[in-house]
Amino acid sequence: MKLQYAIATLLLTITSGPLFAETLSIHVNGMVCGFCAQGIDKNFRKESGVEDVKVDLGQKLVTVQTKTGQVLADEKIKEIITGAGFELKSIERK
Amino acid sequence: MTKKLSPWILGFVMPWAMSTNLIAHPIAYKGSISLMSMNSRDMNEIYTHYSFSPRLSLGAKFLRIEERKKESYSVFPQLSVLLHRWNQENFQANIYAYGGFGANKANDKTGTTVFYGGEADIEDRRFYLSTSFQGLRLSEFRDHHTLKARAGVAAYVAEYTEPAVWGIFQYEWHPGAEMKHQFTPIVRIFYKNALLETGSSIKGDWLLNFMIHY
Fold first, then answer.
1. What does the pLDDT read at residue B6?
2. What domains does chain A contain, in order, with CATH numbers?
3. Cβ contact (<8 Å) for B164 and A38?
4. Which residues in chain B have Cβ-Cβ distances shorter than 8 Å to A37?
């Protein structure tokens, strides 16, 4: 019975995504103005899996915290950055 | 190729190669709606547009011009296109073109308005240069052409969560107008999705511009 419970838990975990929240460090080219960067902030916050967004103009860095168990695909990140008019340089996941 | 170009060389060459949408970009981020208004002693402009992408927006513009105690009113749709953007690590530069065709009313007559223009800008977190050219052909009023150039410097390097304050010096050339040359120092403040500009020319002509997008 315990073995069956453990297997079921494992399967549920595998199929439902990561157990932890992700911190995405997104490096962006062209992000020099806070007024123009509003689109990045707004469109990341529209995503249901996003917990928090921070924009750092000095580091040209957007930090996105996902909700527990939620994943934000690279394609979606690129779509948001380019849709805001900027160029995606790199993504780091922690 | 563009990575090898100094941003400031690019900034000086580009503007003069090509000026009243100049308070901010005529296209915002994908899916956004923008509202802007530019006002001076003899001109009021209200423009709202939808950005289909960072490269294309469509909007509607209302324009009132007063000259020698006579008034002209124009209403027209405007299409704006981003021709090229340089997104570099420490700066962004843009070239836009736009145009529209609609109605003009002046001197108790109704006719047509043809609007066309282009603008270029370059900015980093501390400096800003832009220029634009705009033509307005009014069937019932004098045609208007404007060449505008701006140079701005930030009062401080603002973080994303802080209000930003800029000092801008604007030069306008209006061929055919009584006052051909106009120099206006401007203060620009923006915070989050709202931008406000105000200034007064050396001869005392005021201006008040604002923009918001959501």
1. 52
2. 18-93 (3.30.70.100)
3. no
4. 160
